[in-house]
Amino acid sequence: MRLDLFSDVADLTAAIVDIESVSGAEGPLADAVEEALRALPHLAVERDGNNVIARTDLGRAERVVLAGHLDTVPLNGNLPSRMEGDRLYGCGTTDMKSGVAVALRLAATVTEPTRDITFVFYECEEIEAERNGLRRLAATRPELLAGDFAVLMEPTGAHIEGGCQGTMRIEVTAKGERAHSARAWMGSNAIHTAGRILDVLRAYEPTRPVVDALEYHEGLNAVFIHGGVAGNVIPDECVVTVNYRFAPDKSLAEAEAYLREVFDGFDVKVTDAASAARPGLTHPAAAAFVSSVASGGTEVRAKLGWTDVARFSELGVPAVNYGPGEPTLAHTKDEYVEMPLIADCETRMRTWLTA
What are the catalytic residues? Predict the structure, then answer.
């Protein structure tokens, strides 16, 4: 399972796709990536579990980080890869082995970049956060992720997607009083009271904050509802789980304060949260990236979702998402990537790193 980093980026993508690497089983692919990178004398390479980190050390004024995860979701009869016209089909083609291939090609062939580069290939992005390799590096080896700017090679259809939204899940509880359903007037129906929670959600008008010149689209939605005791009992509790997607102009504390204000009068419990990330497009390294990569009509837009760019943001490193894969195809049985987009991404990033 050897990788030829000097082969055509399309062939390299197919080779990476054909090394199965479902989350938790990235070892063989990490081995192949490490072996290929250690053969390059201009890079210093480290291994941490199934994370592989390679760095230039040329004393440049800026350092940028290119990161991509090695794992995929479980197979769905979509390996080995196959080519049909300009499309490469297979598990992980779009999310995100095509992006990994671009980064590996750059690692091998850009030997004298104008900015020092750290390449990070990490494990377990597609499963629970506790096992995420980038999360572990941020906690235990943050110096390996240090930089002025970072690019996460997530699928974006070759558009630049700045930062990411934050996410928060809360449980909003309506209280009542139990009674026999034959004598309902002796109790208070919590499910009926929960209608007020749903009224708030129905009336919600999504805000569209502009952060670093990018427009985000917030969202507030019920995702679960639970209540009831028995078929003849008036329920004394009903819980509505609400997911809030918020722009990077809010901190976690500000998002929580906002939700408590919106659902004033109800018990509110935060069950899960992840910070948003500002795109930081005003930083010189980020501005140079946008100027170079976005030439020729490439769209620059806000990331409407959460990605690992938030981990870089927590370390004080502005970051964007940029990769050749089409995000709407991620995790699907018929996942594919357009081969011309892979080559285009490589060319644009090479220009940025060498200009």
Answer: 71, 125
